[in-house]
Amino acid sequence: MNNNFVVGPSPHIKSPRTIDYIMWDVVVALIPAMIAATIFYGMAAFYILFASTFAALFFEWVVLHRTFKVRDFLGDGSAAVTGVLLGLSLPPALVQDGYLWLAVLGSGVAILIAKHVFGGLGKNPFNPALVGRAFLVASFPVMMTGRWITTGVDAVTSATALAPGQVDFTLRQLFVGNVPGSLGETSALAIIIGGIYLLAKGHIDWRIPGGFLGAMAVMSVFHVGITQGINADFLQAAGHEVLFQWFSGTALLAAVYMATCYVTSPTTKKGRLYYGIGCGLVLILIRYYAQLPEGATYAILFMNALTPIFDRFTVPRTFGEVKK
Amino acid sequence: MEKRSFKGGIHPLYNKELSQGKAIEVMGEPKKVTLPLQQHIGAPCQPIVEKGQDVVVGQKIAESDKFVSAPIHSSITGKVVEVTEKHIVIEGEQNSKFEVKNVRDIDSLTPEEIRSIVKEAGLVGMGGAAFPTHVKLSAPEGKKFDTILLNGAECEPYLTIDHRIMIEQPEKIVYGLRALLKATGAQKGYIGIELNKPDAIEALRKASEAYDNIEVATLEVKYPQGGEKQLIKAILDKEVPVGGLPVDVGALVNNVYTAAAIYEAIKEDKPLFERGVTITGKGVVEPKNLLVKVGTTFKEVLEQCGGLKENAAKIISGGPMMGRAVANLDEIVTKGTSGILVLTEDEVELVEEKTCIKCARCVDACPMYLMPNYLAAYSRKSMHDDAQEYHLFNCIECGCCSFVCPSRIPLVHLIRQGKWEINSKRAKK
């Protein structure tokens, strides 16, 4: 018998879920949204997603790796998640208008500045995909928010459901995704499928999307109550408003995939719930009271900044501790 | 069935099927045993035999006048060949069977007598920590025991020895529990068993039928369900206060195997010199549950199981979650050795540690409601005050945090080091 054994601290077994596994699983969870985008916007979706994802992987590789091996190139999957998410948040009109390079630029900002300037995975205070997106919206507002195309038919300019004065899309259209919008935010159905997958596999905590969407719902009901008073149609109108707020724009995509970003959300359970509620509140305030597109982007980035404070003030009661 | 539990914890792969179906076998007699003078937490023993002296199996060979200590008995009949500060070596014949007598019963004993029998028999907690049992049985001034809990959860993956003793000798366990009830004056006894051992639940229910004050509590299958504080929380729904002991909530927790040993000590006057050990893992040719004499080397024990496979890479004394990796097979089976686990090359993960991604899996898994991410970071930077503010010393070192960490940060190891640093700083003062 050989007499040379590995020693090391306990535990001697580990969960098979490494960073790589989790990140690639998040990419898997994004597949329904990617498929929906491709169904509704055709090849434009494919080009944009490919450009943003490939660029994200490329920039990650530039920073982290020296030799060009396929495995190395794909990295731990976090760059892929960033790339796909950024791509999903871009308007499909970029392709027609010849601004595909914006996808590459956004990924560059996300990976190089938002992520690696701060020290790489785990150290960035703000969600890289959202920083990339915020950068694009601030720098190229016309391309990013001015032109939307209706689904299926190319070259028809339209506005998103949230644009002021826009005719109502039916909830059914919003739910399935048959409306103009960014690639990934268009289909609530696809996002919900991905979200259920993430919840079932234990990759995300219900507290963040729950707090997020819950706060939005409560605020929407209040808003309806204040603006039209409590009348016979109140319940129906409030219900419609809640679903409209959830299914339109980036809210759902943000609640499921962006706000739940591990690195930039709190680590305590209570902190996660408060953070989710905060995201929903800020988003709805922006939607109702500010003349600003991108409510979800700014809401989450704002809450990212508060994450350390949530962690600091929501330290859980330890086992056997009597709260004073 | 009812599913009592606690918050947090993890669900590792249990891998119990390797040895679960194997009845406890008596291991062949070792020619030589090495008995360490310190086999438990507490004061080491002093030898009371000399080199060259003949000893018989079960004879006391070392003891201590300190309270927190348990005497040591020879596990074979033979001659003392070596006495050092660390251990006593005995060499003997191949046949040294302890004669089982039926000497007494609990009904004829006072609580003090039971406690002194437990002490004289050298009993320690056999779940792994090996704390002297008689010390646990004495409630501190002004406190008393209401409830005795027997831990039959056996939540460590791979280990099956407690499971085997429960289905093979349930009467002994119930008897031991009755002895504990009498020795402490407690009113009620529970035997906590995880739901993945239905045959053990059945056996102990049957064995305890006649006693109204004994109940089998069925537990959710989860690690660390058998942790002392988690077991109390699950069964009694009480939390042991921070820095406190189970007695603070009127409870006393003992392992089921210890209860069986109490039976042997009382009824058969048999001291603790042998114990059941699970020998398992994909690196062992034939996994088994063996009755092993204390003082036997791992090498000999493994030979009884057909030896190691080619790809054996890591030997663990105890279970995979809290056991200790040993460097070689000269390691000795002691009173606290519940298992010998052999992991193979592909099960031993040597990956580099990555940055924390703040996924909070450790926070969600911690059964003590701690924040292992912060505790480990503060410990690593020797920020002792911050670590203590986050209740560093409430960590039970179960390893759930390290198990779930996707960045492979050795969280519990760092926390342990932090505790150690603080303790040694205190000791210097």
TrEMBL record, chain A:
Q: What is its EC number?
A: 7.-.-.-
- Residue ranges spanning the membrane: these are 21-40, 46-64, 73-93, 99-118, 130-149, 179-200, 212-230, 242-261, 273-290
Q: What is this protein called?
A: Ion-translocating oxidoreductase complex subunit D
The subcellular location is: Cell membrane
Q: Does the keyword Electron transport apply?
A: yes
Q: Which family does it belong to?
A: Belongs to the NqrB/RnfD family.
Domain of life of the source: Bacteria
Q: What does this protein do?
A: Part of a membrane-bound complex that couples electron transfer with translocation of ions across the membrane.
Please describe the quaternary structure of this protein. Answer: The complex is composed of six subunits: RnfA, RnfB, RnfC, RnfD, RnfE and RnfG.
Question: Which InterPro entries does this entry report, sorted A to Z?
Answer: NqrB/RnfD (IPR004338), RnfD_bac (IPR011303)
Q: Give GO terms for biological process.
A: electron transport chain; transmembrane transport
PTM-bearing positions, type FMN phosphoryl threonine: T160
Q: Which Pfam families match?
A: NQR2_RnfD_RnfE (PF03116)
Any GO CC annotation of this UniProt entry: plasma membrane
Name any cofactors this protein relies on.
FMN
Q: Key word Transmembrane helix present in the record?
A: yes
Q: Which UniProt keywords apply?
A: Cell membrane, Electron transport, Flavoprotein, FMN, Membrane, Phosphoprotein, Translocase, Transmembrane, Transmembrane helix, Transport
Q: How is this protein positioned relative to the membrane?
A: Multi-pass membrane protein
